[in-house]
Write a structure and sequence with these properties.
Two copies of one chain form a homodimer.
Chain A: H1 14-42, H2 48-59, E1 63-64, H3 65-72, H4 76-88, E2 92-97, E3 100-108, H5 110-128, H6 134-158
The structure holds a DNA duplex (30 and 30 nucleotides).
Chain lengths: ~160, ~160
DNA sequence: CTATTTTATATTGCGCGCAATTTAATTTGA
DNA sequence: TCAAATTAAATTGCGCGCAATATAAAATAG
């Protein structure tokens, strides 16, 4: 494939190499893919994680901060400031849940809801020139999902 | 699979469905995997991206900042402060290349080199309870690599 | 040989991502 | 009932990750 796979010394530390292969591949692929979305989402005034929040809210709104965090595997330390920025951008409204004052409900504004059409364009633009053949894209997605499943169930087991 | 695949409205915008998005699966898998490494690497005094730099340097040292960046898909805005932290931790030495004063060569210190043994332990610990069956791990790795290849070659084509 | 352009790294600024802690509301239990 | 435990979100602090810019050295052009 690429040159860096040749940068190997002839020692026996296969464990380090293999380790590098899987974890680095995921890390780099994720960063690069985010970079592909960045200019497209910038036109909508969104960052990539903000886009993920919008995807979740377009499916159901309002939702609590915790609910968003569960679906995206993010905590309030990440979401609270992110949602505040989205609120000042006019995309969402944040308000305490009257029936449980600990919760904060995040709701799409009309502007946030209407952005859905533009986002649809972005998704279609990316899909129109598919990066990977469908079968490979599905294999990658399923592999990543399987890893997510393992990593999140291990967390539960530790409790 | 998981519950969030049920959080779908019955609209026809398949393109926007979170659970079909390769980008979210990669994003979440990468974040979660980094989280798995975090406590293990913390014992070595390393963050995950610092660990990646060490993996590259253990293969060859010294290397320029640009060379590290090419292999890890990171720029000087990320690497310069990261390498400074690694230098103050005593893991690497940074010095201008005498034959080309624009370059900075990053070299493992003795301490940095000796950390390799401990890192080997970390990699073996993770490998001993394999997260995914080997074939699935390889499929995930190969899919990610293929995507990396596409995304980096597209960047070249834009120039 | 000098002016221009290119290359390599550093700096600045902003938005995550998460550990650790804090604040406040709800639940639990003696 | 009311103190202790639990839960939800916010806050603080730090390390990325990258765009934009700055600085300086080397390569190139005329």
């Amino acid at each position: 494939m690429s040159e860096q796979t040749q940068l190997l010394t002839n020692d026996t530390d296969d464990a380090l190499r293999l380790d590098k292969q899987v974890c680095f591949a995921l890390y780099a692929a994720s960063n690069l893919l985010t970079g592909l979305y960045r200019p497209l989402l910038a036109e909508l005034g969104l960052t990539f994680p903000q886009y993920l929040v919008m995807l979740v809210l377009w499916e159901k709104s309002p939702q609590s901060v915790g609910s968003l965090g569960q679906q995206l595997y993010l905590d309030s330390g990440t979401l609270t400031p992110l949602l505040k920025r989205m609120e000042s951008a006019g995309l969402v409204k944040r308000q305490r849940d009257a029936s449980d004052e600990r919760r904060v409900l995040v709701e799409l504004t009309e502007q946030g809801d209407s952005l859905r059409a533009s986002a649809h364009q972005v998704a279609n633009t990316l899909a129109s020139g598919p990066l990977l053949p469908m079968t490979e894209a599905e294999a990658l997605r399923d592999g990543a999902r399987k890893l997510i499943g393992v990593l999140t169930s291990e967390q539960k087991a530790e409790e």
